[in-house]
Amino acid sequence: MAAERDGDRRRPGDLVRGLLPRRTNAGAATARPAVEAPAAVPHRDLESVIGDCALYEDGGRRPGRLPLPEAREAASTTSGFVWIGLQQPTPGEVEAVAREFALPPLAVEDAVKAHQRPKLEFYGDVLFAVLKPVRYVDHEEVVEIAEIAMFIGPTFVVTVRHGESDVLSRVREELDSCSAALMEHSATGLLHRTLDLVVDGYEETLGYIDEDMDQIESQVFSASTEDNSERIYKLKREIAEFRRAVLPLGLAVQRLADGHVPGISDEALHYFRDVHDHVLRTADGIEGHDRLLSDILQADLAQVAVRQSEIAVRQNEIAVRQNEDMRKISAWAAIALVPTAIAGIYGMNFDNMPELRWQYGYYVVVGIIVTACVVLHRLFRRNGWL
Q1: Could you give the CA distance from residue 293 to residue 206 in angstroms, rounded to a whole number?
Q2: Is 213 helix (H, G, I), strand (E, B) or coil?
């Protein structure tokens, strides 16, 4: 990044004098969802919004914290850089810092509104970057996303954080520790280390998602009758949010890795290529997880349909058995109706009934009843009712 300030011209490579080393995935970022810029709070001290304001030069941090008015003066004279970190600021508080460092208005508007896509833009000698740290809440199976806006000038860095994230605090701790690996510091090195931790957080989150997917896959293809479609759909939705945080960052980091950003030395390109490789690997993992979840969802829905079909078959079998029972009951009732009807007729107490005085009347009536019942029984058995 070429810059000319107060007559002191600096070469682009001077901004990258010492990049911070890459750390393993064990130090992944922790974040919660990005939130809207808070409403204006009356009478809030701007210094309380600034998490820290320090000058870094000659391989370390100058002792103490700089007040904002002195930070601008220090940035104009130092050979290092000044870092001002804003935490959950209001629009007015961001604009106050923007006036001190002449930050580009369009970038300031993006930093205030938050909910931007990860990106990398240039405004003269100021590089504006938007990053999305993530954290996976395993017990809720939710991907929480924060947002970091970075203004990187020749001798200053202004960061605006929305949501909860420890990425910037960890980078500042490394800068303040003055370890042997951090002999020199630069604004571009700060950008690299921040990207490094954010991408480490992506890989850690992807690992947690992979564990949950293994659990879901085991449940779907086990003998369990539990319906997992709601859980699968929820995880697909979280992966979609995760994708929106990762994929755009790949294009931004590629510009850094390909040397299309002014002020990035050839030595620094190797570090950004490493970050770009990790971003691409995470993006491929997200796409693979999303496709696999779609397949698991289809398998779960198919199993649900099979179980519903089995239930319907059992219900039909029950209905058939009930129909058979009703036919049997109806058949026996029809057979019992014959003697009941005849007995009912002869149970009428009328004097003028000719059959009452007939010598063989009783035997004839009993024979008729038996014959009728036998005929009905055979007829019902032939029709399958008995």
Answers
A1: 13
A2: helix
> Can you tell me whether residue 227 is helix, strand or coil?
coil
Element (H, E) at 149: strand 147-152
Q: Are 88 and 162 in contact (CB under 8 A)?
A: yes
Amino acid at 59: G
CA distance 51 to 84: 8
Answer with the residue of higher pLDDT: 185 or 225: 225
Query: 280 to each of 166, 208, 254, how far by Cα in Å?
Result: 23, 18, 10
* Cβ neighbours around 78 below 10 Å, total: 16
> Where are the domains positioned within the chain?
3-305, 320-382
Task: Answer yes or no: are the C-beta atoms of 129 and 191 closer than 8 Å.
Answer: yes
Strand, coil or helix: 81: strand
CB-neighbour burial class of residue 22 (10 A; exposed 0-12, middle 13-18, buried 19+):
middle
d(CA 131, CA 115): 10
What the block records as the tokens of 313 is: 């078959």
Chain-wide mean pLDDT for the chain?
80
pLDDT tens digit sequence for 303-328:
777 778 878 888 888 888 888 888 88
Residue 273 CA to its chain's centroid (Å): 27
DSSP H/E element including 4: strand 3-5
Q: In the CATH scheme, what architecture does the domain 3-305 have?
A: 2-Layer Sandwich (3.30)
Which helix (H) or strand (E) segment holds residue 235: the answer is helix 229-257
Phi/psi for 47 (5° steps) reads -65, -25
The model scores a pTM over 0.85? no
Q: Which of 277, 288, 268 is nearest to 250 (CA)?
A: 277
- Comparing 36 with 146, which gets the higher pLDDT? 146
Tokens 């990005």 identify what position?
Answer: 34
Look up the CATH architecture of domain 320-382: Up-down Bundle (1.20)
Model pLDDT, residue 44: 63
Crossing angle between the packed helical segments 361-382 and 266-346, to the nearest 10 degrees: 160
- What angle (nearest 5°) sits at the alpha carbon of residue 133, between those of residues 128 and 135? 170
